[in-house]
């Protein structure tokens, strides 16, 4: 029975997480990059808008910009239907209206043809969709004119200069992690480069004599390596520079040499396996000999034998070998620290209440991150189905999950129908 209730010296999860954050440093080096390369990069300086957006009043519709001095703010439908306007010119996107004499404004009773996005003259006080007018030649003056088929509102369909972003406005603070639409926003401000923190360099290695890379034949007792594949994928989603160091044998000298090499190349070294108390578990021993162990063993399940420490130049995370334990400890403990080191603002994953559809087994002693499938019941309520296989070696179970069921350290399980806390998988693990 692997019951750790009576095992002393297990650090509570929240304390482990906060200890990690207070024992790592944020990188200071920054670089200028093209905005096309800025997705998921972390800002090293706030971004302030150099211009106002939109730069000019412009039309939200294809149609006609009119000047009707009887239109007023706050009144609706106050332009008489069948009112007529003399057509004096055209404003296209990128080519504003100019009269034959070079004027850019309208007189009362005049209109121009206008396209979506084209500059609206300051003197115009509404844009009319072309579907809502008829156009004809004035029989007396022979001028081209339009007739409004419906009343219009004051300033209808005009997008105003600066209504999106004011010049000088701080759009993003230091530590903001840019996403795809933000790149478009930066481009809309005319910014071609931004200053970001350089990428964090993270070395990943797996320890274990039994481990083989996919593609190699398995001898008796061997298994295919999976932890580093999970970690590398998550690090890539975090947009960090990964240094893959492969599989290291359960040999103290080999592990020592691998840790020293990793420390020379990376800001962070992450190993998995060999961190428990078995005869071939050298991770913690080597860490204490060539670096320091800040803490070892956390009161969480899966992932109890998690080690955190420092090497000469880098921070060290020793993850347990069981694949689910490695994935969960990386996600729950290492990721917040890595994000902080990379310069990113803290984020919290979404936690919700849900009804469990089946019994949840749990002994007091360690905080559980059970794996579940969140869904919406026929009645429209949030529910969670705990996955039947919660073993820390069962990868297929976490692969099917879309959330954690979070059970506090002293919690002793639940009956079907109870309300539990779930945490939705984020884009790093999910
Ligand atoms: N006497 C005790 N034994 C164990 C304890 C304990 O407290 N006392 N803790 C258990 C818990 S909890 C965990 S978690 C594991 C963690 O052990 P290690 O970190 O030393 O991991 P290993 O023994 O090296 O491997 C465990 C398991 O995982 C497989 N593995 C390892 N690396 C990989 C990899 N890269 N890819 C896929 N699978 C991997 C390995 O073959 C083992 O099956 O210790 C318990 N024991
Ligand atoms: O219970 Mo271990 O912590 O298997 O992951």
Topology summary:
Layout: H1 13-22, E1 30-34, E2 47-48, E3 58-59, E4 63-66, E5 84-91, E6 110-114, E7 126-129, E8 133-137, E9 144-148, E10 158-159, E11 170-172, H2 180-188, E12 193-197, E13 201-207, E14 211-212, E15 223-224, H3 227-237, E16 241-248, H4 252-265, E17 268-272, H5 283-290, E18 292-296, E19 300-301, E20 307-310, E21 315-319, H6 323-341, E22 351-356, E23 367-376, E24 382-386, H7 395-400, E25 403-407, E26 419-424
Helix pairs in contact: 1-6, 3-6, 4-5
Bound molecules: ligand LQZAQKY5 and molybdate ion (MOO).
Strands ordered across the widest β-sheet: 7-4-6-5-9-8
The largest β sheet comes out as: 6 strands, mixed
Question: Beta fraction of the residues?
Answer: 25-35%
As residue ranges, the low-confidence spans are 1-6
CATH level-two architecture of the largest domain: 3-Layer(aba) Sandwich
Q: Note the overall shape.
A: elongated
CATH homologous superfamily placement of the largest domain: MoaB/Mog-like domain
The structural domain count equals 4
What is the β-strand count? 26
Radius of gyration: 32 Å
Terminal-residue CA separation: 31 Å
Question: Which class of the largest domain in CATH terms?
Answer: Alpha Beta
> What is the count of helical runs?
7
Helical content, roughly? 10-25%
Bound molecules: ligand LQZAQKY5, molybdate ion
What structural category do the secondary elements indicate? alpha/beta
InterPro entries: MoaB/Mog-like_dom_sf (IPR036425), MoaB/Mog_dom (IPR001453), MoCF_biosynth_CS (IPR008284), MoeA-like (IPR038987), MoeA_C_domain_IV (IPR005111), MoeA_C_domain_IV_sf (IPR036688), MoeA_linker/N (IPR005110), MoeA_linker/N_sf (IPR036135)
Pfam families: MoCF_biosynth, MoeA_C, MoeA_N
Family: Belongs to the MoeA family.
Protein name: Molybdopterin molybdenumtransferase
């Amino acid at each position: 029975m692997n019951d750790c209730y009576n095992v002393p010296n297990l650090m509570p999860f929240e304390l482990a997480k906060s200890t990690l954050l207070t024992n790592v440093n944020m990188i200071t080096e920054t670089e200028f990059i093209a905005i096309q390369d800025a997705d998921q990069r972390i800002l090293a300086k706030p971004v302030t808008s150099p211009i106002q957006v939109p730069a000019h009043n412009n039309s939200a519709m294809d149609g006609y910009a009119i000047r009707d001095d009887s239109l007023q703010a706050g009144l609706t439908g106050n332009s008489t239907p069948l009112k007529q306007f003399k057509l004096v010119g055209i404003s296209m996107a990128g080519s504003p209206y100019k009269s034959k004499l070079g004027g850019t404004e309208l007189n009362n009773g005049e209109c121009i043809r206008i396209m979506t996005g084209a500059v609206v003259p300051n003197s115009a006080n509404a844009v009319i969709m072309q579907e809502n007018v008829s156009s004809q030649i004035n029989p007396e003056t022979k001028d081209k004119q339009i007739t409004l088929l419906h009343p219009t509102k004051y300033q209808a369909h005009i997008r105003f200069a600066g209504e999106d972003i004011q010049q000088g406005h701080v759009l993003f603070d230091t530590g903001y992690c840019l996403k795809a639409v933000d790149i478009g926003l930066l481009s809309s401000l005319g910014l071609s480069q931004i200053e970001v923190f350089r990428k964090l360099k993270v070395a990943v290695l797996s320890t274990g004599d039994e481990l083989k890379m996919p593609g190699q034949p398995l001898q008796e007792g061997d298994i295919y390596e999976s932890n580093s594949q999970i970690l590398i994928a998550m690090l890539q989603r975090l947009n960090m520079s990964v240094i893959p160091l492969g599989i290291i044998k359960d040999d103290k000298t080999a592990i020592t040499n691998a840790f020293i090499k990793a420390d020379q190349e990376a800001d962070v070294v992450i190993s998995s396996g060999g961190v428990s108390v078995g005869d071939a578990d050298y991770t913690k021993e080597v860490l204490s000999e060539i670096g320091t162990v800040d803490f070892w063993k956390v009161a969480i399940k899966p992932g109890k034998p998690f080690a955190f420490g420092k090497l000469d130049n880098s921070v060290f995370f020793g993850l347990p070998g069981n694949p689910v334990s490695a994935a969960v400890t990386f996600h729950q403990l290492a990721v917040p620290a890595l994000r902080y080191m990379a310069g990113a603002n803290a984020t919290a994953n979404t936690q919700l209440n849900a009804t469990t559809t089946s019994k949840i087994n749990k002994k007091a002693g360690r905080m559980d991150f059970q794996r579940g499938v969140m869904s919406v019941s026929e009645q429209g309520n949030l529910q969670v189905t705990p996955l039947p296989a919660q073993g820390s070696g069962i990868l297929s179970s976490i692969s099917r999950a879309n959330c954690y069921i979070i059970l506090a350290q002293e919690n002793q399980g639940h009956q079907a129908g109870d309300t539990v806390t779930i945490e939705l998988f984020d884009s790093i693990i999910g």
